[in-house]
Every structure is written in C-alpha cells, then in structure tokens.
Amino acid sequence: MLKKIFSSKKEKRDISIDKQLDLNKLPQHVGIIMDGNGRWATGKGLIRTSGHKAGVKTLKKILKTCIKYNIPILTVYAFSTENWKRPMTEVNFLMNLFSSFLAEQIDEMCEDNVRIHFIGRVDELPGNLPNELHAAEERTKNNTGVRFNVAVNYGGRDEIVTAVKNIASEVQSGDLSIDKIDDKVIDDNLYTKDLPPVDLMIRTSGDIRLSNFLLWQAAYAEFWFTKTNWPDFSSEEFLQAIVDFQKRDRRFGGLSSK
Ligand code: FPP
Q1: What is the pTM of this model?
Q2: Staple partner for 175: which of 62, 95, 101, 170, CB 3.0–4.6 Å?
Q3: Which CATH number is 27-155+198-246 given?
Q4: pLDDT for the residue 1
Q5: What are the DSSP E strand ranges found in the chain?
C-alpha cells in the first residue's frame, strides 16, 4: 500500500524523461524539502556534515535544471526554526555552508539571471550571515529569471503567527476592517508575498510529511515523495516528479479539470 506513495524509476524507462515533459504545463512554483543528508553520510560511514556538503552539489544541479526548463520559482527548505535543536557543531557547519555557498555561487547566479531571496527569521541568524544574505538579495534583485527562495530559520507556523500579528495590529490601528480580511490579505503578510502558491512539493528520503514548510502556500500543492536521499537526487528524478505532476488531475475542490 505504502509503496504507491513513492515514485518508481522503472516506469517508462524506454522513453527519456525530458521527452515526456510537457513544456506548456510546467509547475510555476516548486517546493523542495531536501531531506536525508545525514542518512546519506552515515550510510557511507561518513560524518553527518559531509552529507550537507554533498547536498549543496545536488542543490546546484536542481537549480540549473530549473533554469534550463524555465521553472519560474524554486523554494527550498535549508534550515527550520526547529533545526537549532541539532548539535552546535552541525548548526555551525550549516551556517558556514550557507555563507560559502553564496560566496561561491553569487557570480554564477547573476550570469544565470537568478534572483535569490531568503525566507524565514533571517535577521536572527548569527554573525555577519544576515548581512551576507541581504547583500546577495540586493545584488540579484533586478534579475528576471528563476526566483530562488531559500528558507533559512523558517517555520510555517511562525510565518502564519507573524502574519496574524501584523494583520491584528492593522485592525487595532483602524487601518484595516475585519470584513476586509481575506486570502489576499494573508498572502500579502507572508514571506512569499506576490508569489503564486506552490504547485508541486517534493520531499526526498522517505518521510511523508510537510515538517512545517510552506503550510499556507502548499494548500493545493501536489505532493511527490521519493526514498532517494537528497545528495543522490538527480535532475532526471526531478524531471520525473514534474512529469508525474503533469498527469495529476488538479481539481482545487471542484470537479475534474480534464
Ligand atoms: C535535511 O537532512 C537537511 C538539512 C537540515 C539541511 C539542508 C541543507 C542543505 C541541502 C545544504 C545546502 C543548502 C544551501 C542553501 C547552501 P537531514 O540532516 O535532516 O538528514 P537526515 O534526516 O538523514 O538526518
């Protein structure tokens, strides 16, 4: 029964995956929970942090694939508000990794016309990291290609609580009447303001949950799970997720869309 939830790489292996892709029906916004770095590393007898290092390579590959196929928005979960519970050495390693990733990739992102944006409690990150993240956003803000959102110190509930507080204070000050509160008002108070909702949500490494990622934005997302650990996730598997997404009947609460 559970097996059906996971993708099968054996299906349609005779036709290459990019030929199965319908370029007119691409998801506009893809979310990815990049899970399994630790398990990938320990499975190889390595320390957990080498899994995160390997995960960076996968992330670069998937970003390039979005650029190649014109997938407009990619949002990835890099560090949650709950990840502070991890050992300090791992947390520090990840913070340094975000910093080195930017230093190494920012020129290439500009060449690729990528606009990077960070979502989450970015200003509460340690040391100079908030400035580095804001500088990267500033440098790429006029780029018109793929919008690359990286969730760092992000929690979906925290995002909604913050939105509720902002809206309540507008009501309290008399700038907003309660009857005017609708989906759009909530959207406008989220980190993803002005972006369309998530169409396709991918999670690697076998767990079948959302883990507090984009709770509001994924309300009608199609979910796609694989047992592959993030460092082993390939562009082909990413395209397979999109091909499978294109076969789904998205009814948005109505009747068949076909
Ligand atoms: C989940 O795997 C992964 C993370 C908490 C970190 C994700 C970070 C990267 C992929 C590094 C690159 C990111 C950027 C933006 C440069 P896990 O450690 O929970 O794995 P496990 O469940 O097997 O322990």
Answers
A1: 0.94
A2: 170
A3: 3.40.1180.10
A4: 47
A5: 29-33, 73-80, 115-119, 147-154, 200-203, 222-225
